[in-house]
Amino acid sequence: MAVSKIITAENPLLRHKSKKVTRFGDSLHRLINDLYDTLENAEGLGLAAPQIGILERVFVIILPTEYDDKGKVIAPQERYTLINPQFIRMRGEAEMIEGCLSVPGYQGKVKRAVEVTIKGQDLHGKPVRYRAEGLLAHVLQHEYDHLDGMLYLDRLESPDNLWAVQPQEAEEAETQGRAI
Ligand SMILES: [Zn+2]
Asked: Would you say 82 and 128 are in contact if contact means Cβ atoms under 8 Å apart?
């Protein structure tokens, strides 16, 4: 297990545009494993390579297992690895509450597309395409922004849309208190 340090908003590396991945070998596979280990350790929903200081167009997402009120699994955990992603369709607009592992202790309200189609490559370079709505659509847009050096802070329409949170309040947020 290789948990990396997650860099935070004041680090200028988060403001760079990441480079396209052209080699799908061992070093990319190590990077992806490190991203998953770091994301699981931080109990987040998504993590982009620049958040661990690597300026490559790669991100990973873990949607947690969903349970009903009797504790029965209604949706198993889902994992998405995207390399060189590109949105090919974005539809609708909705405000959502977001947190970011690189902006600890805060949450904010931002507008995002409701439904997206994204294409990219998997860890072997094979083309992949996903259509997503709801939470997954929102996490995809947040992670994609990291690859272009953007943070959700840049999308706030007013400074009032950002607030400090205590860990227990974060539990109640729309993203289940998990930062992306
Ligand atoms: Zn983030």
From this structure: yes
- pTM for the whole thing? 0.91
Ligand 1 centroid–CA 150 distance in Å is 9
How far, in Å, from the CA of 122 to the mean position of ligand 1?
A: 21
Q: Fill in the amino acid letter for 78.
A: E
Using DSSP's 3-state secondary structure scheme, residue 157 falls into coil
> Catalytic residue positions?
143
- The domains found in the chain, sorted by start residue, are 12-170 (3.90.45.10)
19, two tokens? 């480079």
Tens of pLDDT along 53-85? 999 999 999 999 999 999 999 999 999 999 999
Q: What is the DSSP letter of 102?
A: T
Which residue(s) pair with 107 in the sheet?
Answer: 163
**Residue 48 C-alpha to ligand 1 middle, in angstroms?**
7
